[in-house]
């Protein structure tokens, strides 16, 4: 489906259903996760409207350094980045999981100021976010041609491979790679590479290993926003799948493993209890203090991140770090 906005384009590749397929897939994942030992739920279900709003709040928490660090490194290195991107002439700037493009706008501003020849292709599963971004950029940067794509990552990548003929620079910012398990992250970067041509560029945002106390605090903020974000998953199950989770009987428990470099988030059942889901017509039992694993946020060393890019078929170009050396945007070139 192709819709024209004023001059920009919106390509909607999302599966249009009445929602029943999404609900069935959600119910199946939840039933499987709650029947497993140990129990788990996928963090991909965090982001309903309320979860997305809570994540916006997380990004401005004093403890959650990630967003500020990446924003500041982009401010500091944008001129160098833009020169590296534009060295081969015209390019498509592809932004995977663009959202409101808060950070990418720093690059868009710099590219425009320097008169570089490019178009912008934000890709996100949220149609509302892509429509809003397209409108917003039409106002702020009318000179930039925006082709917003509404799609899951893999569908979107296939579309890019088939429809964008010119050189590509792909951004995957915000430490989103951290929410993939290591092997899955490696696989995903290989998939990105498979949809690119030799010479195309890839900029990957990674949160680096650092003082474990700093990392733990980022996922255990004093004001309890991260706890609400985690618990919202149970609220969503109650609302969308007819669950009867008692939110007061579960608590947020974050745990950083400094040897593995991974932040784990759990929801812990504070008592023995049983939960019923209308969607599956089944009951799930919890022992006192039994935990559900809800999210992994992997941290990388510069070497690990470099190796991940190389293994996927990229050559390492350079890394741009924030002034504290805690966050990196790593630039790779497809070979
Ligand atoms: C989206 N993602 C990179 C965030 C992270 O840091 O893993 C999600 C998040 N979870 C808790 N706080 C933020």
TrEMBL record:
InterPro entries: EgtD, EgtD_Methyltrsf_superfamily, MeTrfase_dom, MeTrfase_EgtD-like, SAM-dependent_MTases_sf. It comes from the Bacteria. Keywords: Methyltransferase, Transferase. The keyword DNA-binding does not apply. GO terms for biological process: methylation. Residues 26-333 form the Histidine-specific methyltransferase SAM-dependent domain. GO terms for molecular function: methyltransferase activity. This is Dimethylhistidine N-methyltransferase. It comes from Pontibacter indicus.
């Amino acid at each position: 489906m192709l819709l024209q906005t004023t001059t920009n384009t919106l390509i909607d590749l999302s599966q249009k259903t009445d929602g029943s397929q999404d609900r069935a897939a959600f119910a199946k994942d939840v039933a499987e996760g709650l029947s497993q030992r140990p129990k788990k739920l996928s963090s991909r279900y965090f982001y309903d409207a309320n979860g997305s709003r809570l994540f916006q709040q997380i990004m401005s928490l004093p403890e959650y350094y990630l967003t500020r660090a990446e924003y500041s490194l982009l401010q500091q290195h944008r001129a160098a980045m833009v020169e590296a991107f534009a060295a081969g002439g015209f390019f498509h700037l592809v932004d995977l999981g663009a959202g409101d493009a808060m950070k990418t706008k720093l690059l868009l501003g710099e590219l425009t100021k320097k008169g570089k020849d490019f178009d912008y292709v934000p890709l996100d599963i949220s149609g509302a976010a892509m429509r809003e971004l397209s409108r917003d950029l039409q106002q702020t940067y009318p000179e930039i041609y925006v082709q917003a794509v509404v799609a899951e990552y893999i569908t979107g990548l296939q579309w890019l491979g088939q429809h964008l003929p010119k050189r590509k620079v792909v951004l995957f910012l915000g430490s989103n790679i951290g929410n993939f398990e290591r092997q899955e992250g490696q696989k995903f970067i290989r998939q990105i590479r498979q949809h690119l041509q030799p010479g195309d560029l890839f900029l990957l945002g990674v949160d680096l290993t650092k003082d474990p106390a700093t990392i733990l605090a980022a996922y255990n903020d004093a004001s309890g926003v991260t706890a609400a974000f985690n618990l919202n998953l149970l609220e969503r199950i109650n609302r969308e799948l007819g669950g009867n989770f008692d939110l007061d009987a579960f608590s947020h428990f974050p745990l950083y493993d400094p040897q593995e470099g991974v932040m784990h988030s759990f929801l812990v059942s504070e008592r023995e209890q049983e939960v019923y889901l209308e969607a599956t017509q089944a009951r799930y039992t919890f022992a006192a203090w039994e935990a559900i694993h809800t999210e992994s946020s992997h941290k990388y060393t510069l070497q690990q991140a470099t190796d991940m890019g190389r293994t996927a078929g990229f050559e390492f170009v350079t890394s741009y770090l924030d002034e504290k050396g805690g966050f990196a945007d790593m630039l790779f070139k497809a070979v």
